Amino acid sequence: MAKYNFDSCIDREGTNSAKWEFMKKISPYANENTIPLWVADMDFACAPEIIEAIAQRVDEKIFGYSMAEPSYYESVQNWFLKNLTGLFAVKIYFLLVVLFQLWKPLFKFIQSNKRGLLFSPCLSHVC
Q1: pTM of the full predicted structure?
Q2: Please, which residues have CB within 8 angstroms of residue 44's CB and are 6 or more apart in sequence?
Q3: Do the beta carbons of residue 34 and residue 23 sit within 8 Å?
């Protein structure tokens, strides 16, 4: 695995960062001494591999929805089976608009009394 620099933070001022610039509007308890500890909005640079992948996509000049190859699903399933103890089967749903389609797989799991996994952090107004 590549090494990443977590000692260098990027100044987010002027970037419309909800975490820093709009924190006081989001929370009535926030003030200039508040340190937001958000997981989903980090102040580190993206990994070079992510930046490369996005740059390749930009070079294609098309931003439509794409479908994943079967090898993607197999890779994710294998990771879950290897890393989560007690997991015996994995079903992956491809959702184009996650927030509006999240109910589909959850509803199926609820109807069949099966257990499901919802990753956190989850948007507070959704969960």
Answers
A1: 0.48
A2: 4, 5, 6, 8, 9, 10
A3: yes
pLDDT digits (tens, 9 = 90+) for 90-102: 677 666 666 556 6
3-state secondary structure (DSSP) of residue 61? coil
Give the closest residue to 17 by CA, choosing from 42, 39, 35.
42
The tokens of 65 are what?
Answer: 């929805």
- Amino acid at position 115, single letter: R
Where are the strands (E) in 13-118, listed by range? none
Task: List CB contacts of 42: < 8 A, sequence separation 6 or more.
Answer: none
Q: Are 121 and 39 in contact (CB under 8 A)?
A: yes
Phi/psi of residue 55, nearest 5 degrees:
-60, -40
> Which amino acid makes up residue 95?
L
Q: Which residues does 12 contact at the CB level (< 8 Å), separation at least 6?
A: 19, 20, 21, 43
Phi-psi region of 31 (alpha: psi -120 to 50; beta: other; left: phi over 0): beta
